[in-house]
Amino acid sequence: MSLTNKVAIITGAARGIGLAIARRFAIDGAKVVIADVDDDAGEAAAEDLRAIGEALFIHCNVAERLDVRNLVAETLNAFGDIDILVNNAGIAVGADFLDLEEADFDRVLQVNLKGTFLCSQAVARHMVEKVEAGGEPGTIINMSSINAVLAIPGQVPYCVSKGGVAQLTKATALALAPHGIRVNAIGPGSIMTEMLASVNSDPAARARILSRTPMGRVGEPSEIAGVAAFLASGDASYVTGQTLYADGGRLPLNYTVAVPDAE
């Protein structure tokens, strides 16, 4: 119960990696706020987590400043504090570079990069006030990706946004270090979320993923949640400005690995 009585906001937490992080934090004793634009899924997720501990759903489009201000205000009204922020909300739009619409490029960066900035700034202002009043500093965790380093030609805005998140993490960590507030990021590789579920029925797609994954399997959301739990805990008290890549060994790889037959 390393996060006992800590208050954690997780954006994009109605499903997938965000929900896995919310669940792990609840198990570890935190009071959890699920922020998402999907009201039905968000309410259902919060209700499910109440079987473990305290959980609340708040509708929030992280790209909208007023939504973010409301998220912070409602969290403080409900729990009185914010100790942890996980900027997990993110979207992707696939398109050939020559056909990519400006609106789609803007939309991905608005959510993935600007949303991370807006939430970080709003929560950090509260955290700094708390530190100045003698309280303990909090921590911010951003969701980057191996695609901050490795590019995909059909996912230009996603790759650009995640590279931006990696740099935002470093800059924010330096800005907040004098207050004792730690800022880190997680860079997942191939994780079994809804976006990757189709590989289970597509042997060729699964083989492509596994051929670039030395550990020979797709990761689970709970494994990313474990990294988040470490970064949020006191065990990471001297870690800031870092991106921890949980990718099954993909980033160090400069070749493809043999993949057993699907059978």
CATH C-level name:
Alpha Beta
Choose one word for the global shape.
globular
Integer-rounded radius of gyration: 18 Å
Largest sheet: 7 strands, parallel
How is the largest sheet built, in terms of strand order?
3-2-1-4-5-6-7
**Structural classification:** alpha/beta
SSE blueprint:
Layout: E1 7-11, H1 16-27, E2 31-36, H2 39-49, E3 55-59, H3 65-79, E4 84-87, H4 102-132, E5 139-143, H5 156-176, E6 182-188, H6 203-211, H7 221-232, E7 243-246
Helix pairs in contact: 1-7, 3-4, 4-5
Description:
This protein has 263 residues and is an alpha/beta fold. The protein has a single domain (7-197, 220-246), classed as 3-Layer(aba) Sandwich (Rossmann fold). The chain is 42% helix and 14% strand. The chain is built from seven helices and seven strands; from the N terminus they run βαβαβαβαβαβααβ. The chain has helices spanning 16-27, 39-49, 65-79, 102-132, 156-176, 203-211, 221-232, and strands at 7-11, 31-36, 55-59, 84-87, 139-143, 182-188, 243-246. Strands 3-2-1-4-5-6-7 form a seven-stranded parallel beta sheet, with helices on both faces. The model has no long low-confidence stretch (mean pLDDT 95). GO terms for molecular function: oxidoreductase activity, acting on the CH-OH group of donors, NAD or NADP as acceptor; quinone binding. It holds the Pfam family adh_short_C2. This is Short-chain dehydrogenase/reductase SDR. Keywords: Oxidoreductase. InterPro entries: KR_dom (IPR057326), NAD(P)-bd_dom_sf (IPR036291), Sc_DH/Rdtase_CS (IPR020904), SDR_fam (IPR002347).
